[in-house]
Each structure stands twice: as structure tokens, then as C-alpha cells.
Amino acid sequence: ELKADLLINQTKNTHNQIEAMKKYSEDVEKLNEAASQRPYSVLVAGLQRESQHLRELQAENCELRNALADHQNAIELIMSKYRQQISQLLPKEKTNFYTIPNLWQSAKVDEENSVKDQELISRLMTENKGLRDLLYIHRTYGPFIEMMENDGKNNDKNDESKS
């Protein structure tokens, strides 16, 4: 029985090989029919041209990959410089948005204090002008007023002495 199974397996293998050979023959026959339309030397020349074209495409592909790698390296360098510049600028330009209301409030208080100071300065300047005017009047008419006061006292004394 073992020998029979072995023979059956060998027969199947042989049958598969025969089928593969038939298929191969058919494929070769189809190729020969296609090739019979053109001479063999033309086919060889066409294959050589295609082969050369494939080599050129492979070389161009290699060049393009190298160029792409160079461009990627350049972009990485540019981006690293850009990130470095941005990281240096951000701390300088960083605004703490929580302090903005406090800054507005302090600016408002400063403005109010400035207005009060201006009002005080204006009042003091008016008072100063009034005092200067009084001083001028006193210096100008002071002796005359004293003289009149003295005359008035003398007249009062005279009136008292007459009585």
C-alpha cells in the first residue's frame, strides 16, 4: 500500500509537471507569434533601449532622492534656526495677561493723582498771585496807609484830649 501511495504521488507530480510544460509551451508560442511580426534584431534593440531607459530612470531616481535628502536637511536647518529665533523673542515679548488689569488700574490712579496735583498747583499759583498782589499793594501803598492810620490815631487822641 505504501508503494501504491508513493506511485500515486509521483504520478500526480509528473502530471503537474506536464501541465506546467504545456502552459509554458503555450506562453512561448504566444510570444513567438508576437515576435514573428517583428524581426529578432528589432526586438533585441527594443529591449536594449528599454534597458538603457530603465537605467537612466534609476539614476535619475537616485539623484532625486539625494536632492530630496539635501532639501530636507536644508529645511531642518532653517526650521531649527527659526525655532531658535522664536524662542529668543518669546521671553522678550511675553505679556502676563493677568497683570494687565492691575496696570490699567494703576494708570487710572496715576491719572487721577495727576489731575489732583494739577488742580493743587493751579490753586497754589492763584493764591501765590493773590499774595504777590497784596505784597505789591502793601509795598506801594503801605506807607500811605500807615500814615493815614497814624493820622487817624492822632485825630482820635486829639478828639479824646478835647473832650
From TrEMBL:
Keyword Coiled coil tagged: yes
* Source species, domain of life: Eukaryota
Sorted alphabetically, the keyword list is: Coiled coil
Q: Which Pfam families match?
A: SIKE
Give the transmembrane ranges. Answer: none
Q: Which family does it belong to?
A: Belongs to the SIKE family.
The protein here is known as Wit3.0, putative
Q: Which gene encodes it?
A: 8238738
